[in-house]
Write a structure and sequence with these properties.
alpha/beta, 7-stranded parallel beta sheet, 39% helix, 15% strand
């Protein structure tokens, strides 16, 4: 089956969780589909190696502009002027190229597919359950990007033909609110055990280096503030907290903590290999947390919460989950004092990942895609 994955952000940069998830999903889909990624953003020349290594064809905006010139004058009624090139060329490529289906991330990319032939299968990669996320945010006085009730989210999902959920937890939320088939497509990354690099990058003597990674968002800003104000002051001894990402750093430094801000990091591996423990004490939100997943895949023990472990709880040992500030602080101190325990937990994380068949969903997805496509073609023929 021919599948076009549509995207309007530079996912090849892998700077945010959405981008990392999209590439991970495309890597998997390329194993069961003839996949083409169509990006409405121009890929800089420095990423040409990414294009060459990808197991799929990648068409970016520079190529779309050439196609648009070949199409000549004309526009699609009702489409914003700044989207005409993208919508016209996507429609041309998908319909003339014999594609069976299109994939879009999130609900607000429907403008990319509204003008396609109705027999093309529409697939949405949900990333999060927005109604669950709305409930979680509301408990803490926040408003998410998509403020949805279950009924509203179900109506949005019903505009598509196949729904992709990143976790079994999200699948359970979606199943009662949509009649569409829901497929759990776990968000995973390649495993790379950094244990051999710890001798190179790790500090001499006792390791009391901690790590917090996050992009700027309301939840991440609140989580870092909570970590610095409420948690770290409860941990015995001196600490070093390494902060990576453009998350807002509050104007507070715990008396026992040295804060090191890392900006414009080109290679995160040396930082991961240096720290004793990664932290993600998030208490609001939804979806699979990239910061948790990345640490696990590097074999770095990450202390988190049930929310931070969403979609990965079966991979994470109980000793690495704590849901209140006192227990979280206690566990930080306990793990910093026990390098053998950290090493054992790191090995357990890697073993759990390697034992998991995270692509077991692919055959079922391929079968559902073929069935939905056949049905839509049959309906049109009738």
């Amino acid at each position: 089956m021919k599948l076009a994955a549509l995207v309007d952000f530079p996912y090849w940069e892998a700077k945010v969780g959405t981008a990392i998830r999209y590439e991970s999903l495309c890597q998997s889909l390329a194993k069961v589909c003839d996949l083409t990624v169509i990006s409405t953003v121009t890929m800089p020349d420095r990423y040409e190696g990414f294009r060459e290594d990808a197991p799929y064809e990648l068409i970016d905006r520079s190529m779309l502009k050439e196609i648009h010139l070949e199409l000549g004058a004309g526009e699609i009624p009702g489409v914003r002027p700044d989207r005409q090139i993208s919508v016209r060329t996507v429609k041309h490529l998908v319909e003339s190229g014999g594609f069976d289906a299109v994939l879009t991330p999130y609900f607000n990319r429907n403008w990319m597919i509204d003008h396609l032939s109705p027999d093309i299968v529409r697939i949405i990669d949900t990333h999060d359950c927005q109604s669950q996320r709305t409930r979680s945010f509301a408990r803490h006085g926040m408003t998410p990007t998509f403020n949805m009730s279950p009924e509203q989210e179900g109506a949005e999902l019903d505009r598509y033909d196949i729904v992709l959920a990143m976790s079994d937890e999200d699948h359970a939320e979606f199943a009662p609110i949509t009649a569409r088939p829901v497929v759990t497509t776990p968000f995973r990354l390649p495993v790379r055990d950094l244990a051999p690099l710890r001798e190179i990058y790790g500090p001499r003597g006792q390791n009391r280096e901690l790590l917090f990674i996050a992009a700027k968002s309301d939840v991440n800003d609140l989580t870092l503030d909570y970590l610095l104000r409420e948690v770290l002051p409860l941990v015995p001894g001196r600490l070093t907290l390494n902060i990576v990402g453009n998350v807002t750093v509050p104007d507070i430094t715990p008396f026992n903590t040295t804060v090191v801000r890392h900006e414009n990091v080109e290679d995160i591996v040396p930082i991961y290999a240096r720290v004793a423990l990664a932290l993600n004490p998030t208490y609001a939100g939804g979806g699979v947390k990239t910061k948790t997943l990345e640490a696990i895949c590097y074999g770095v023990p990450i202390l988190t919460t049930d929310e931070g472990a969403r979609g990965m709880r079966h991979l994470i040992p109980d000793a690495l989950v704590a849901n209140d500030k006192e227990l979280f602080a206690y566990r930080i101190g306990q793990l910093l004092e026990a390098p053998e325990m950290r090493d054992a937990l790191a090995r357990e994380l890697i073993a759990n990942l390697r034992a998991e068949n995270s692509e077991a969903w692919l055959p079922a997805f391929a079968q559902i895609l073929r069935a939905v496509r056949s049905r839509k073609l049959g309906e049109d023929a009738a």
